[in-house]
Amino acid sequence: MISSRIRELLSQMSPQEKLGQLQIVYRPRHEEAAALVRAGIGAVFWPQSAAASNALQREAVEGTRLGIPILIGLDVIHGQRTIAPVPLAQAASFDPDMVERLARTAAVEARSGGVTWTFSPMIDVSRDPRWGRVVEGFGEDVHVTSVMGNAMVRGYQEQDLSRPGTLAATAKHFVAYGQPDGGRDYNSVDMSAQRLRNVYLEPFRAAVRADVAAVMASFNTVAGVPMHANGALLTGILKDEWGFDGLVVGDADGVANLVPHRVAETIDDAVRMAYAAGVDVEMGGAPSAIAWDASTLDPARLDDAVARVLGVKEALGLFERPYVDEAAERVEPTDATRAQARRAAARSAVLLQNDGTLPLSTGSRVLLTGPYATSTDHLGAWAQSFSARSSSIADALRARDDIEVIVEEGVSFFGDRHDDVDAVATAALEADVVVVCVGEPSSLSGEAASRSDLRLPGRQADLIRAIAGTGIPFVVVLANGRPLVVADWIDEAPAVLEVWHGGTEAPAAIVDLLLGDQEPAGRLPMSFPRSAGQVPVHYAHENTGRPAAVRGTMTLESVDVALEGPANVQEKYTSKYLDLDLGPQFSFGHGSGYATFSYGQPRVSSAEIAADEAVTLEVEVTNTSARAGDEVVQVYVEDVVASIAPPVRRLVAFRRRTFAAGETATLSFEIGPEQLGFWLADGRFAVEPGAFVMHVGGALERTVPVRLQVR
Ligand code: NOJ
Predict the structure, then answer these.
(1) Which of 72, 75, 215 most suits a substitution to test ligand 1, by most atoms within 8 Å of the C-beta?
(2) How many C-beta atoms surround the C-beta of residue 18 within 10 A?
(3) Architecture of the structural domain at 4-321
(4) Can you give the pTM of this predicted structure?
């Protein structure tokens, strides 16, 4: 619904004034940005302070004929001043309320400085860890990505953009950017309509239902059509089928990139094609929108695009309150935002394995080694120059008086002639326990940061093996922005704690976890492959006609086979690699904690339902340990027979809950059409009659099944 104010403005605007609203420009120099705003450009990137934002806003409100305020955009991805864990890590928390609160903090900090629009959340389902941008999203699972994306949208937008401290959110990148050929950033995507609908479109559909203000087009093609010119998806599905009434923004120079894509001959053609396809705002600004030829754009489409932009400005209350209070700009974290970030970093960590070496005993003599012992590179991709820095794990550990610390880095991230693995191994002999802090620096993940080799860079694995050779107990702390290949050392490591890039307060949180002040209870949002040659490898793959099952190897398929698979399982002619064990090294959903849990037999409120009905699934979970801890209860659905080969398992619900020592609680979940159905290639949603098995547990490899029949 277009408001009377917007209708009135549209009737007064010249074609050039309309075009100006359809661009966001990046110009770091104030004079240039101010000149563009005076000329009618409707959105700019954040000029880095409240005062500079107000100055540009004044040019728009007081210096243009109609006084339309500008949007001020920025990539506020996981914090503005206080940096929270990277989104992939936030997903690992399996705690959407926490994700919502972190986005809220980011919004308050950013809005106080004049930002009104963030290019977040990234909800590209990501199944190829070679792609560096997996760090910016919520991993491989459709449900987790949808839930976390919506939590972020709620945190930024508070379901009412006119409230103080909100940001207009952008769901990006529409669509299927998470599956570029070979994991190479910006590369081509080609896939079936059913996979597009069930996997890649689904989180966007959820974001539209959560009223996300904007959607960003992606750089990739889908079946040969670049997304910036993809009318079938941008207009056909997003705007028409789903009724999205917010704005579609192009990605940086994505419209101009239609020329190197070789689908447009000139920039003018590119602009015409992009707007016809459904892009509303071009990002980049070369050439300036006011120089475009308005006659090439359909007048109704032009008005529609302008109305969408003005609609976001109006929702944000910018016509009434265009300026921010410069004196109230938040430039530093507060004690409260630091405490929140510290807890979030701890809640995002995943205990990959532990023989009891963790938590460390107080009073022990600890050798801290590896490049992450002293590195302060914990902010991860997309932290900005104005974000609060972090300290190092060494600094945080030294701040404790109940532990003795010796620090000897031993090796650098990338390996150079100063690396001295042997010296560390000698020093280890003097310690009670060694903490090996390794990983990938932030620069190795994020945009344009694809890798073909997913092992730890440099000589970090040598360091781990050298420590293993001493026989001294040790712990590996892994800090990274993507799933890594750890096969060359994992079997030698007694305990491994995945901490990702945890943000401003990561080091303190890591120490909290190492010493047991916080309980690690995150779960992997993305599988760790055994080798780069195995990717993409993800848990929800489609059933094949020849599921692999090798005796003695626990895999999803062998569980299937044991449950109800065909008797004639073929061991050679099955889908697998000859030179790798089955399945990933660590699957999606994997992770343990210091506490231990057991599950009762799950129950459904009715064993048989109609396709439009729902059941309540209940399961009793017990903390079988003597310490309090969190469990992430996961519910997977297996569709036993469907009209198209279904995924072997599909997560449909999860809940993270804290249990006191010895506590038993009953958790319940609603399972209905949304959980049981799927999209057919023609765009129909179907719940097909037949048998379903729900698998309930704390990780994929530890689930208890319960059957449900749909008639
Ligand atoms: C390019 C990236 O793909 C996108 O995610 C980001 O929002 C824009 N640049 C703006 O910085």
Answers:
(1) 75
(2) 25
(3) Alpha-Beta Barrel (3.20)
(4) 0.97
